[in-house]
Amino acid sequence: xxxxxxxxxxxxxxxxxxxxxxxxxxxxxxxxxxxxxxxxxxxxxxxxxxxxxxxxxxxxxxxxxxxxxxxxxxxxxxxxxxxxxxxxxxxxxxxxxxxxxxxxxxxxxxxxxxxxxxxxxxxxxxxxxxxxxxxxxxxxxxxxxxxxxxxxxxxxxxxxxxxxxxxxxxxxxxxxxxxxxxxxxxxxxxxxxxxxxxxxxxxxxxxxxxxxxxxxxxxxxxxxxxxxxxxxxxxxxxxxxxxxxxxxxxxxxxxxxxxxxxxxxxxxxxxxxxxxxxxxxxxxxxxxxxxxxxxxxxxxxxxxxxxxxxxxxxxxxxxxxxxxxxxxxxxxxxxxxxxxxxxxxxxxxxxxxxxxxxxxxxxxxxxxxxxxxxxxxxxxxxxxxxxxxxxxxxxxxxxxxxxxxxxxxxxxxxxxxxxxxxxxxxxxxxxxxxxxxxxxxxxxxxxxxxxxxxxxxxxxxxxxxxxxxxxxxxxxxxxxxxxxxxxxxxxxxxxxxxxxxxxxxxxxxxxxxxxxxxxxxxxxxxxxxxxxxxxxxxxxxxxxxxxxxxxxxxxxxxxxxxxxxxxxxxxxxxxxxxxxxx
Amino acid sequence: xxxxxxxxxxxxxxxxxxxxxxxxxxxxxxxxxxxxxxxxxxxxxxxxxxxxxxxxxxxxxxxxxxxxxxxxxxxxxxxxxxxxxxxxxxxxxxxxxxxxxxxxxxxxxxxxxxxxxxxxxxxxxxxxxxxxxxxxxxxxxxxxxxxxxxxxxxxxxxxxxxxxxxxxxxxxxxxxxxxxxxxxxxxxxxxxxxxxxxxxxxxxxxxxxxxxxxxxxxxxxxxxxxxxxxxxxxxxxxxxxxxxxxxxxxxxxxxxxxxxxxxxxxxxxxxxxxxxxxxxxxxxxxxxxxxxxxxxxxxxxxxxxxxxxxxxxxxxxxxxxxxxxxxxxxxxxxxxxxxxxxxxxxxxxxxxxxxxxxxxxxxxxxxxxxxxxxxxxxxxxxxxxxxxxxxxxxxxxxxxxxxxxxxxxxxxxxxxxxxxxxxxxxxxxxxxxxxxxxxxxxxxxxxxxxxxxxxxxxxxxxxxxxxxxxxxxxxxxxxxxxxxxxxxxxxxxxxxxxxxxxxxxxxxxxxxxxxxxxxxxxxxxxxxxxxxxxxxxxxxxxxxxxxxxxxxxxxxxxxxxxxxxxxxxxxxxxxxxxxxxx
Lengths: 582, 582
Hints:
The structure is a homodimer.
Chain A: E1 2-3, H1 8-17, E2 32-50, E3 53-54, H2 70-86, H3 101-104, E4 114-122, H4 128-131, E5 142-146, E6 151-156, H5 159-170, E7 174-176, E8 179-193, E9 199-205, H6 213-225, E10 230-236, H7 250-255, H8 265-276, E11 281-286, E12 303-304, E13 322-323, H9 330-345, E14 351-353, H10 375-395, E15 399-403, H11 405-408, E16 419-422, H12 426-434, E17 438-441, H13 444-447, H14 461-467, H15 480-484, H16 494-499, E18 500-507, H17 517-521, H18 524-533, H19 541-557, H20 568-571
Parallel strand pairs in A: 2-4, 4-6, 9-10, 9-18, 10-11, 14-15, 15-16, 16-17, 17-18
Antiparallel strand pairs in A: 1-2, 2-3, 2-8, 5-6, 5-8, 7-8, 12-13
């Protein structure tokens, strides 16, 4: 059967056709896919070639170091795909008709045709840009073919494309209920694929809550399963400074939550390398000039209004604190900070995020170097601040990113190179792109994953009735269906649409930590992952739900504690359309 | 310092006084507690006596079998408390001031006074009622004293009270950052405690999603940490029949989600015994006559309207199916069913829940034995059904429970022995108790934990705009503050209030399974746990948040993947009131 790019018309029909057997549910949906009905088996004896040479892969292989080589990256990708296939796969009882798994999965007693070879051909040559591309600088497209005789092949322009292909390959197979046997019932398979957006990210806030390195690495893995390619690490905020800056060690020594709750240079490098080996670019953010309060514990001379009360008069959440805007000691501090961190970022990323959200002008009443909330005074100072700060970023060979308030709300002029992260919605994106700015969207109405679970603040008796029943500012909770309905390029001209490079799911961590981050992110970030990877043509909630439910089981099998898409009643074979509102 | 029953006035003051050190945060709050400022240590060498005799406990001890003995139960309780103290404890860095853990936790180099003995005295004698009490039949009160010299003692009337005391005891201690050393800084400790409500439960829906036995056992443990005492297992529903009934084996053979996704008699007994050993009564529900569709796969002759379409015309969610109301084959079927399950329930419970929610009268148009939706026809049939069905329950020595629609919406007369589970809110409770009925509350506006995360149904293009942005019927999400604000006895006369036996948190599992059940239940069910255990006098959100945040860390340490209460910024020492809206 054929699942063309324009799937909408066929979606429901296909769901019905496929009703009695697990759908071949590649997530996110490829540009085109055709499948058959032959069974093929696969095992850990798979021989892999890369550009005609044997690629000797082993389980658990992880490339080391900061020099990235195409063949090492591909070798790691093969190792992970094979781990997904033969070590962390799942028996799809929840995808077959009730009680029909045993009678409809392929017989172990018949002659088995195995996939014995996977030939990988990379037509282009990776450059250093491949491993830290600006949006559009790497070609992630690929083709994947598995013929009936068990010959599998991947073709891609870049090693990143090969990684995407290997991920799709890993999603072809299920585990047999009778033991460690792995099969697809859908051969031959032919996939042609490429991403819709260049920037497909998750914002991971390691400041409000501290996350162990392993938590970040696990999330990078899950992102790779979704073919996402940017992990934005919101590394510092007013609540804590977990990022070790060896030139300014007192920042984390006084500002981390506790001893050991910080990221050493080795930790940071490990995270960055781990991400790049999975085709994901790490983007580090040190938010300025707002969201900077905690630095007051070690450098009070550069911070205005630290922990000022009542906090709601001066900042969006406690504790308050912004960088002083007219204080001569700020530039030497920022020079030192950036001279330390930027050389540790530039080997791994094309970008550095300078923050810029929620700068509170009232706070500058408390800044002894400003002493007013008058924007006529503040904006020129802010302009100077941004100019100098972005110059630091550019000097290190990096492109600055900012939150949208900097250009949109504060009227600060920024370079056309800058990528703006918008969170305030469609109008903001329309306005920014109309001015020719490059934008990524984290529209809070759709893609703020922390929303809708109620206030994280406490309320005394005086405020109790006003805030009851304690919804948070960005309620409701963003169900995956809502997330999936979002089109970052909606209602834009073709010219403007091109400037929307992609988007990021935001997981602000006032009320999230390692215990529940998986449930917060998945499968909801997967829904956005498909919006960002797959063509919007013909995608529907109904068609997606079946595939997403299957993909969710892969996430669980791979150790990601994703929330559900559906109860098994809705995922089982002939019920694939039963859980529709009718 | 003294934390009397009437804490309200002192709550904020206390929080401030305790600001620089972890609060002695027993959760749920005891009736009264006084603490000092001496440090005591504890280790696995603790000697325990029970009624004057040495109690030889060992880690991991679990009483076996269906004959419950007080000393065995206490031995298991001691083993678990000691595991919590010395094996699954935590270093409370998130409760001390930032970076002050190492300087303010007790020194390992000074002379250590150890708690070497714990003397447990049970003044009453347990009876068989102790292990399967009706509401009010077991005295759960206790006192706990730890003097400065390290002598600890527990006094209680029942072994259940001893278990509650051991739980409080286990919450006195923290782990030292330098290794496996365990201390309290708050000796002497004196606690007097008893529950506010007799029925403190969680409804666990194992039908919509299948949960492994371990998942249920883990939840029972977490409930015990919260001094909860009823686990209501919603064992069957229209989506699946996971409960094995040996007399009617085709029910699970055809109705479970898959082979192996069912509870054998041994599984059920294991769950029941595990619960009772933790002072928790298991209550089994087989929902009738609605929510019964799945039985049609094996017994179509007793089911009306199985999987009828469009489902929304005939039931609350797919697939539809109700027991036929005037079909002679129903009684023999139910006799067989109940003769099988009730003798497996009665050794462990005083109750059996017969369901009764969401009976859809339109469905009886599809019932060949009724053929109308006329309540004048249906109600007398329903009355007959309930009379016969409750007679079966009573004959087995059990008290029936029902959902409130049976008496409230369908005007069916039920016995005064029956406990009614209300979910529709305060008015329903007022009306039922006014008629003299015993009630437990699962008010969906507060205590439905699955709510507010959006629809679990899919929407086609025709319904898309109508249901966008896809909120579920019981939005918003029930934040712990909202849950905590609920008073099941609000606005009732004293006479009516006495009839409110307690309540249950409901975790309906259309969109929950084992991967995320912990995050759904905790810490939110803990908030209700305190409502049900602790006196409402003087409880405030502000005071509770500090203790709940600490208790949440105990849950995490004990392997329960609870959601957060606060980011560490809000839980650290002097910030205990910083995250208030001001």
